[in-house]
Amino acid sequence: MMKVFGVWAAALLWIVSVGQAAADDNPIPSVTVTGSAEERAAPDKATLNVAADVKSPTVAEGEAQVQRQVKALLQRLKALKIADDQINSAQVSVRPEYQWNEEARRNDPDGYRVRRDIRIEITDLSLLGPVLKAVTASDITEVSPPQLGLQDPGAVDRKALALAAKDARLQAQALAEALGLTLGKVLSVQGAGSTQQPPPMPMMRMAAADAESSNSQQGILTGELTVTQQATVRFALLP
């Protein structure tokens, strides 16, 4: 009985193998296309990195000067209703400075560099100009250009991805019609991931402490972000 069962199992395995081979020899006619799409969106967030950076004869003097600058800035940001959780001012560094002594052929101590980095998240872009004014009014001169972005980048990504999928279908439809075939069901889909092109660096001039501070008066233009998505889709082709 066991021998008969083994024979039947071997026969069944052979039938399945032959059927699979036949299926592999006659794959479903299909077409694979990659659709792409761009979606533009106005930025609604800016990240501003600034630093109170001071050189002084002693660490204590440098720390005191940096603390005054940071305290003045935090007070001005509070007046602008920038929340505490939008400000990170914890990173502090102290390092000795040296000056080359040509006569003695050595580096001699030349005070200390005290630095405190501050990161400010701005979710109301109309405040970008006033925040820049607050920075300069606090005697902080090291300011990086604002980094513009989106508070919810996923929404724009999904919209661009949906448009990329539609573009893929249009391409496949055009190919099917050109070949006298009918576009069938989707066999596979793969997203390539999004790329985000930031707008040009905001144009800006640092306003004096007593100058007007709105974005337009400081020449700040935030532009638009461009999000690109791709979708690779395989469609069945029918006679």
CATH class of the largest domain: Alpha Beta
Report the biggest beta sheet as strand number plus sense, adding barrel if it closes: 5 strands, antiparallel
Count of individual domains: 2
Terminal-residue CA separation: 49 Å
Strand proportion:
35-45%
Mean pLDDT: 83
Rg result:
32 Å
CATH superfamily of the largest domain: Protein of unknown function (DUF541), domain 1
CATH topology of the largest domain: Translation Initiation Factor IF3
CATH architecture heading of the largest domain? 2-Layer Sandwich
The 3D shape can be described as elongated
Count of β-strands = 9
Briefly note the structural class of the backbone.
Answer: alpha+beta
Q: Write the H/E string, N to C.
A: HEEHEEHEEHEEE
Estimate percent helicity: 25-40%
Discrete helix count: 4
Description:
20% of the residues are buried. The protein starts with a helix and ends with a strand. By secondary structure, the chain is α+β, with helices and mostly antiparallel strands. Strand 3 (87-101) and strand 4 form a beta hairpin. The protein folds into two domains: 27-43 and 151-239, Translation Initiation Factor IF3 (2-Layer Sandwich); 45-149, 2-Layer Sandwich (Alpha-Beta Plaits). Helices cover 34% and strands 37% of the residues. Strands 2, 3, 4, 5 and 6 form a five-stranded antiparallel β-sheet that branches. Strands 1, 7, 8 and 9 form a four-stranded antiparallel β-sheet that branches. The protein has helices at residues 2-25, 59-79, 128-137, 153-178, and strands spanning 30-41, 45-56, 87-101, 106-122, 142-143, 147-149, 182-191, 195-197, 225-238. It is built from four helices and nine strands.
